[in-house]
Amino acid sequence: MRSSGDLPDALAPAEPAPATLRPLPDVVLDLVPHGGAPVPRDVALTLLRRQLGRIQSRVQEAFEAHALSGLTAARMLGELTDGLIFAIHAYTLAQVGPVQPASPQAGAPDGAAEPPFVLAATGGYGRGVLGPYSDIDLLFLSDRPMGARGRRAVEFMLYLLWDLGLKVGHATRSIHECLEDARADATIQTALLDARFLAGDPAVFTRFDEAFTEARQRWGIGQFLSAKRAERTSRHKRYGDSPYLVEPHLKEGRGGLRDVQTMYWLARYAFGVKRMPELVGPESPGGGLLTAREARAFRRAWDFLWTVRFHLHYVTGRAEERLTFDLQPVVGARMGYTRHGKQDGVERFMKHLFLTARDVVRLSRLLEPAIERATLGPPAVSRSADPALTRAGLAIADGKLLIMPDLAVDRDPGVMLRLVQASRDRGLELHPLAHRALIRSAPFAVGMRGDARANEIFLNLLEGRDSARWMRVLNEVGFLSRFIPHWARIVGLMQFDTYHVFTVEEHTIEAIQVLNELERGELAEAIPVASELIGQLHSHRALYVAMLLHDIAKGRGGDHSELGAGVAQEICPRLGLTPEETETVSWLVLNHLLVSQTAFKRDIDDPKTILDIAEVVQSPERLRLLLVLTVADMRAVGPKVWNGWKATLLRELYWRVAEVLAGGLSVPERDVRVARAKQAAASMLEGQPKEWVEHFLGLGYPGYWLSFDPESHARHAGMIREAEERGAPLSVSTRVLEARAVTEVTVYCSDHPGLFSRIAGALAVAGATIVDARIHTMTNGMALDTFWVQDAQAGNIGGAFQAPHKLAKLSVLIEQALSGRLNLVQEIRKVRREPARLRAVQVPGRVVIDNFASNTHTVIELNGRDRPGLLHDVTGAISAQGLQIASAHITTYGVRAVDVFYVKDVFGLKIENERKLASLRAALLAALTPPPPDEEALPG
């Protein structure tokens, strides 16, 4: 057997095992006593299980005591597993009998003797590294196809391994079969690259190794490289094409362990090297493809990822590779990450992980093209026929753009920006060697800060065609962090919530991508207003710079909008923006949440809401900028954040504020507006009996008439008339609004305290989530409550609640809830609970009571952990305080619920008594606190 120092580890030298780790007993002596017969199989199985337990506990104890890093633990586990496999191999031969070597005499019949076989490790086990729950991949290798005794030995070994509970991948092949199978299958080639001798006749393995090396030279690296690239593309598409997903797949995602292994496989295939340091220095294969610093970066990444993986396996007790929200704080704490300044320990841990993934992406872009060129020959670099390219220091190879090989980037760092600009303008792809040059030259961007020509090109790239693509390139190669120092602070920065899908800098680039799509007209159907407005903007450059900087101050504590506005004041002049542009960018960063927070948290039918935002915005141009910025920001958060309902609210808010800024009469005196609404409703009811129309027009208080359009008033009139004619105590009407991605539920019944709470509870039981509500008591004592709901089921989050059977059930549940025949508390508990991975995200309850946001109502804003029945609980608490809810505005950010209620007391007045406010705040905080779990959370 090989020693651990001989293991073909791809990236790092072995660390010595701690002195406290005494050698494990040699189980072979117990299985096959010296000079005696092997023990019975059941006895052997007991001894092997005991040995396997010793191996696993020994490594786990040492790792969790921080005596081993992840990579050292993986090597140690691999080495100890070697001993176990060697013991099983020896016991197998003692049971089955040794396989005699074939007769060397020429012409000996095939059945005269069995060919010798070798037991080899492949896959990760072949590389000498194992995770706590990794598969053990074995190759039973022989010169010729095995005979009956050899096949019995293989079967005996495999059943023994399976009975031990090990996951075993295995193949039985002759040398010729290995080569034939591998020739057309890169997966088999990869497995054989990792092959390592364990036991048996070493001469057989040597013959295989030599034959496989010769075959690789004959096949060439081109086919292997193409296959690995295709495999990587498919893998990234499945597990995450961004290294900055907030729940990353540690093994298969971009920047994960598999990407590091791919670089090792390519180097191993091309040069036969077993460690990355072998590629350092002019005498190394390829002439020095890596610097010593880059080789150390590979080692650090490899070790860190293995450490995270070991913790992940031990925490979950299985081969879990996705680092979900519930596991992140646990793993981060085990690795020693604690709160530092304004940043939680889990956020510090995840930033380290994302920076490691970024390093893996960069190192892959560095090494892969270098291996390709070293094996296939240098590219045929030609000076372009375009003299402008030549003057810019650029050339073309393989039809792709790169920096002239003889140009010293340290003396002319501007060539980096000229390269990217030329690639965009001429529609030429960047050569892989260009990416390699950009990564190695990125530190020179520091010297370009404040350079007028560099600023001009950068801003041209930022606001030009497909700018998100070029910002992503500049970010990935490390240019942006050097050119804009504040950018480095948000790279890899995550927010520990379920709302944001990407890290901060990746979200920013995604938002720029949405701006690009708006300009190309690709979102004209989904977002017509923003698509039209972006073409009307005069401050185009300011918009793109504001988007680049809108989250630049996140992670610093305090209001990131206010802090970011200050950062913008510093950065914009340095980038060459005019004072007017600087002011616009700073204002946009300061107010980039104004429109969304107003639309989703305030009653936009309240005149004061519109006047307040108009006073802040003041300019039609700024309003246009703010709407476009808001839309792009929201769509970039994640695929489930944007929906038709939010689009409708933003659009309505925009037009109302725009009309005020244009000097229109969208906020005339209340009585005038009510009179106009009644007049419009009457015209919609033309043809109805005059007495009935007059009766209906007298039913609504002013707030009712100002809350709906004439078409809705007409529908309500029909609903009320039918209810009165039938003497129905309850009427429920549903209407699917596909354009808004919501379903409108209207309930007409006798008003009584707690009505909103009961209806909200029934909707929760039905599987509907409320996104907005209007509550109105009519002059006849009846309530006309309207709810806009979406489907809460996982497969249709953000969509209308529209399945016929669900709508029918919803109406029944409302009737049962209002009649008291439905135990809401009990039924809500039965609602499917959220996955365990989401329960780790904590949202402390917060109550804000505002008597200034509205002239007529007290506005209550609640922040808390969303859960089924939350609205039922908080509205019940509001009703228990003797308050009347006029409207509700429900917004969910991941697992954070932000619910806003406009309320009055029983006399129709604001709540201003301090004792009453204190009592209300305490009751709402209690309602926000989730009840103790009475059942296990669903698995993530």
UniProtKB/TrEMBL annotation:
Cofactor: Mg(2+)
Name of the molecule in the record: Bifunctional uridylyltransferase/uridylyl-removing enzyme
Organism superkingdom: Bacteria
Chain's role: Modifies, by uridylylation and deuridylylation, the PII regulatory proteins (GlnB and homologs), in response to the nitrogen status of the cell that GlnD senses through the glutamine level. Under low glutamine levels, catalyzes the conversion of the PII proteins and UTP to PII-UMP and PPi, while under higher glutamine levels, GlnD hydrolyzes PII-UMP to PII and UMP (deuridylylation). Thus, controls uridylylation state and activity of the PII proteins, and plays an important role in the regulation of nitrogen metabolism.
Residue ranges of domain HD in the record: 504-626
Residue ranges of domain ACT in the record: 744-836, 859-940
Single GO MF annotation: [protein-PII] uridylyltransferase activity
Activity control: Uridylyltransferase (UTase) activity is inhibited by glutamine, while glutamine activates uridylyl-removing (UR) activity.
Domain notes for this protein: Has four distinct domains: an N-terminal nucleotidyltransferase (NT) domain responsible for UTase activity, a central HD domain that encodes UR activity, and two C-terminal ACT domains that seem to have a role in glutamine sensing.
PROSITE patterns hit by this protein: ACT, HD
Stretches for region Uridylyltransferase: 1-388
Family: Belongs to the GlnD family.
Any one GO BP annotation for this protein: regulation of nitrogen utilization
Organism for this UniProt entry: Teichococcus oryzae
Keyword tags: Hydrolase, Magnesium, Multifunctional enzyme, Nucleotidyltransferase, Transferase
EC number: 2.7.7.59, 3.1.4.-
Gene: glnD
